[in-house]
Amino acid sequence: MNRSVDELLQEVNELRRRIAALRSAEAERVRAVEALRASEEDAHDFNEKLTVLHEMTNRLSKAATVDDLCCDAVVLARERLGFSRVGIWFVTESGQLRGSFGVSEAGEVRDERGVERPVLAPAAKQVLADRCRVHVTPDVVLYDHTGTPVGRGNQAVAGLWDGEKVIGFVSVDDMLKPGSLTNRQAELLVLFASALGHLCSRKRAEEERFKLEAQVQHTQKLESLGVLTGGIAHDFNNLLMSVLGNADLALEELPPANPARQRIEEVIAAAKHAAELTRQMLAYSGKGAIIAQPIDFKSLVQETLPLLSVTISKKINVVYNLSGTLPRVNADPSQIRQIIMNLVTNASEAIGDREGVITISADVMECDQAYLSQTVVNDDLPAGQYVYIEVSDTGCGMDRRQSRQIFEPFYTTKFAGRGLGLAAVLGIVRSHKGAIKVYSELGRGTVFRILFPASGGGTQAAQARAPERETFRGSGTILLVDDEASIRDVGTRMLQRLGFSVVQAHDGRHAVDMFREHAASLVCVILDIAMPRMSGEETLVELRKLKADVPVIVTSGYSEGEVRPRFGEAPFDGFLQKPYTHSTLTAVLRATLAPRGQAGTGL
Ligand SMILES: Nc1ncnc2c1ncn2[C@@H]1O[C@H](COP(=O)(O)OP(=O)(O)OP(=O)(O)O)[C@@H](O)[C@H]1O
Ligand SMILES: [Mg+2]
Question: Considering only Cβ atoms within 10 Å of each terminal Cβ, which end of the chain, N or C, has fewer?
């Protein structure tokens, strides 16, 4: 059993080799175990994050608005998912980025909603170019919300998708520990972005729906207010008719020296003021439009100048800026004057006792659909040439919230305001198929631009009828039909004063009977429209059947333009707007009876 030294050495070497192999196998085993443990921890951590993400999505889905959603999302992404700097950006129609909310390394939330800038981050550009879910760029220039470079670091950007479209990005980066974004974090970011994209699109659709619903409700509210104000105004007109008419008659019966005259003149002035308010209400309800005629805005503004100077304080400088030639506009001149007066009065009140400037301009412009859709009246107006009147002032101005409310009837911020001026402007503009643009800055001033479709060509504006002052005497019998006793009473006395005999009827049926009875002596019928039993329209048809050639004057609180179409088959001969005074009644009778050579002297 004698072994040689060599053999022994060989054995020792063999043993050493085996020990080394065992050691390396052991080290390998330890490494594998550690790797396994690390990967288990990683998987465990990832699973936990998935659970957190699930909870987050649930919580975020309850956010009221997209803004709330984004604000919560960046905070949660930092606190619960372990990202360092997080930001959410949306892509605008023009391909720019619009800020939302962000959170800094220190955990402070940044409101970046006002920010709009081009896409700068290479990772975001890559997501758009490759249409991939996420793109990670190691060691790149990082920007703050203004687009200013703030350092270098790792950045991952994931797209917010709405179906096939990228609506925005969520970006995470790490300025303090470059290279620390792991693949797992990138995966987590994709899942987070996918949930966020889904929630944002859903919330946006919901917000859009709420906005539309609110718009519909608002329109319905204004429509019913229109019906209400129209109705009140109509009844008011009847009452005013009685007040004005009786006061008018009383004045004529009193000798010039009677001290009661002044009181009565005040009654008349107050009633006229009330009639003016009624006119604003009728305009708002769209019931005030009379037959439009082609008018020249420039001369209309110039004609209104003398009226304007009375309204405006002496400290205010009025500047006119009227373009040379303007296309004509099919409109009702008295209503356009009403618009100018209402806007200029508001402008002057906005400047108050201070010094200031009101600029009144009239010009023409081409309007495209995009421009018209941004106006206050947005009834799908056609693109084309629009003539506008603009009233701008250097007064107190308004904030955005106030600008949204000013056209609502009865909205006012003034102590003695009625809140009807702009509501009337809106009604008139709507019935003329026009539009309104308002631009206002709190403390700086306001611009109202009222646009009307140019009518192209057209004739000279009709001259306003001169007030009828000459004496007029009538003869023969007039049938006065009205369901309001007070109106029959005052009307009868006015007609008698003119020399007519009067027979009355209190509704349509009664009118037909009276007509039949007095047909031989009747020279005219004055016919109300809204009456019980038989309306004015039906009555007129019946009267025409009995005797076709007796002139009929229709009277109403609504305007002629509103009333005419209702009589389509049976046109009438004259129109008398309530409330009327002795002189308007005279003028209408003259105009109606004169062409027939009937009744009257001094024609
Ligand atoms: N040029 C303006 N500058 C600032 N605020 C304005 C201007 N025009 C209108 N407003 C605001 O809009 C509100 C509504 O105006 P609107 O003309 O409808 O009613 P009003 O002037 O208050 O009363 P009124 O019925 O006597 O006209 C005003 O009370 C005011 O707050
Ligand atoms: Mg006003």
Answer: N
Domain spanning 66-209, CATH class: alpha beta
Burial of 80 (0-12, 13-18, 19+ CB in 10 A): middle
Distance of CA 180 from the midpoint of ligand 2 (Å): 64
CA 413 to ligand 1: nearest atom: 29
- Cβ 419 under 6 angstroms from ligand 1: yes
Looking at residue 603, its pLDDT comes to: 35
**For the domain 477-596, what is the CATH code?**
3.40.50.2300
Q: What is the pLDDT of residue 515?
A: 93
User: With a cut of 70, which residues of the chain have pLDDT below it?
Assistant: 1-2, 175-180, 287-291, 378, 456-470, 569, 595-603
Q: Is the CB of 196 under 6 A from ligand 1?
A: no
Which amino acid, 454?
A: A
Let me know if 277 is exposed, middle or buried by CB neighbors in 10 A (0-12, 13-18, 19+).
Answer: middle
pLDDT at 390: 94
- Measured in degrees and rounded to the nearest 5, phi and psi for residue 216 equal -60, -45
pLDDT of the residue at 385: 92
Rounded Cα gap, residues 187 and 184, in angstroms: 5
Helix (H, G, I), strand (E, B) or coil at 467: coil
Determine whether the shortest distance from the Cβ of 446 to ligand 1 is under 6 A: yes
From first CA to last CA, the distance across the chain in angstroms is 164
82 Cβ closer than 6 Å to some ligand 1 atom: no
| Predicted local confidence at residue 229, as pLDDT | 79
How many angstroms does the Cα of residue 412 sit away from the middle of ligand 2?
A: 8
- What is the Cα–Cα distance from 324 to 591, expressed in whole angstroms? 37
- Is the CB–ligand 1 distance for residue 300 below 6 Å? no
How confident is the model at residue 235, as a pLDDT?
Answer: 81
Omega prior to 579 cis, within 30 of 0: yes
In CATH, which of 3.30.70.120, 4.10.320.10, 3.40.50.300, 3.30.565.10 is domain 293-453? 3.30.565.10
* CA dihedral sign of residues 300, 301, 302, 303: positive
Q: Whose CA is nearest to atom 8 of ligand 1?
A: 346
pLDDT attached to residue 376: 86
> Is the Cβ atom of 395 under 6 angstroms away from ligand 1?
yes
- Chain length of the chain: 603
